[in-house]
Amino acid sequence: MNVDVLNRSGVQPAAQSRLAIADCDIHPRTRGYKSLYPWLSQRWQTHLETFGLSYRQPWEKGSAFPKSQPQACRRDAWPEGGQPGSDLAFMAAQYLDPSNVTLGILNPLTSGQGAQNPDLSAAITHATNEWQVAEWTSRDARLKASVVVPYEDPAAAAKEIELRAGNKHFAQVLMLTRTAEPPGQRRYWPIYAAAEAAGLPIGIHAFGYGGFPITAGGWPSYYIEEMVGHAQCSQSVLASLVLEGVFERFPRLKVVLIEGGVAWAAALAWRMDAQWKKLKQELPHLKRLPSEYMRSNVWFSTQPIEEPEPRSQLAEVFDWIGWDRILFASDYPHWDFDDPAHALPLKMTETQRRQVFLENAKAVYGVA
Q: Is 214 helix (H, G, I), strand (E, B) or coil?
């Protein structure tokens, strides 16, 4: 990307103005399950060493598709002797410091969510939360942890949220998009009740292990189909939350959809509104248009952002959604990482730029 050309066209990438950055999607990683042993009982240590960890998917190990890079990470993100995202000093030197990140939300993905054994899932998610504080947020005040929850056991998930309520190290609750059932259904409502009571947004990140194929028609052939499918999955998640009445029941609940794109949101809202006007007798629990719940309770991350030509079409999408609904995300250290110095190459006012790259996240996560 030619920065000089962008500057001549009126675009000002964030790093050019040294704007402070809030990043709502940074992925820390353990150096293996032994990193969690200080917070796991001997029972679970022995279990992991004997049986390992199995997720709700057909494969005993690994993911359904080979990634484009090992562990789907940047080739230059491997610290000596460690995994990408496993070394705070390395992350700070490579990304946080040069990009002027002043707020980073940690979203651990290898954290026991979606594990086949619900008790093991609860143990590992709890240990992961302790590990985030001990190894990350207590060592770098810029970073805030996500409360990783065993969402297929809503009672255990709610208990974990209640344990972290009021803890300054935690900024949100983390779920994944591929749940065993549509996430708006009532079995998951204890999670939303606990999050609302704690004043914590719920971040719903792409991926996960629901135990079913990732498309309605079965398993696709290629990794690219999985990547494209993140947007489809996020649409299903949002439709379920809105139409099942989650935001009517929990009006103060905030939901951040992470790594599923954003350009589809307007079209989905238009379609839901049109059908609701015809079928609203079926949904007496909804008191407003579906699009109104989206505008009051939902935020979207930028990575992986759609990049239409002309770029002004993306600004039109933001106009409809609301510039206060868009949160910058880098997805560090993954291969499709978005550098804030070059992300969102479109014309923005200074107010819009500060909203997207900083102020929106501070408001959503309640960080001064």
A: coil
pLDDT of residue 277: 96
Burial of residue 14 (number of CB atoms within 10 Å: 0-12, 13-18, 19+): buried
> How many other CB atoms sit within 10 Å of the CB of residue 81?
8
User: What is the rounded CA–CA span in Å between residue 242 and residue 182?
Assistant: 11
Tell me what pLDDT residue 57 has. Answer: 84
Cβ-contact 107, 26 below 8 angstroms: yes
pTM here? 0.93
How many residues in the chain? 368
Do strands 143-148 and 326-327 pair parallel, antiparallel, or not at all (unpaired)?
unpaired
Q: Which of 173, 107, 91, 99 is nearest to 139 (CA)?
A: 91
**At a CB cut-off of 8 Å and minimum separation 6, what does 111 contact?**
124, 125, 128, 148, 174
Distance, CA of 241 to CA of 248 (rounded, Å): 10
Q: DSSP class of residue 1? A: -
Query: Splitting the chain (368 residues) into consecutive groups of 10 residues, what average pLDDT does each group show?
Result: 34 58 97 95 97 85 75 87 93 97 96 95 98 98 98 98 98 97 98 98 93 85 89 96 98 98 96 97 97 98 93 94 98 93 92 98 95
Q: What is the pLDDT of residue 213?
A: 83
Concatenated DSSP letters for 7-29?
HHTT---GGGGT--EEEEEE---
Distance CA 147, CA 197 (A): 14
What pLDDT does residue 15 have?
45
Q: What does the pLDDT read at residue 223?
A: 87
- What top-level class would CATH report for the domain 12-365? alpha beta
Torsion sign, CA atoms 124, 129, 132, 138? negative
Residue bearing tokens 């030619």:
2
pLDDT value at residue 1? 32
136 burial (CB, 10 Å; 0-12 / 13-18 / 19+) is buried
Per-residue tokens: 18: 């040294």
Asked if 342 contacts 17 with a C-beta cutoff of 8 angstroms, the reply is: no
φ, ψ dihedrals at 207, nearest 5°? 90, -165
Find out whether 291 and 267 touch, Cβ atoms under 8 Å.
no
Query: What is the model's pLDDT at position 140?
Result: 98
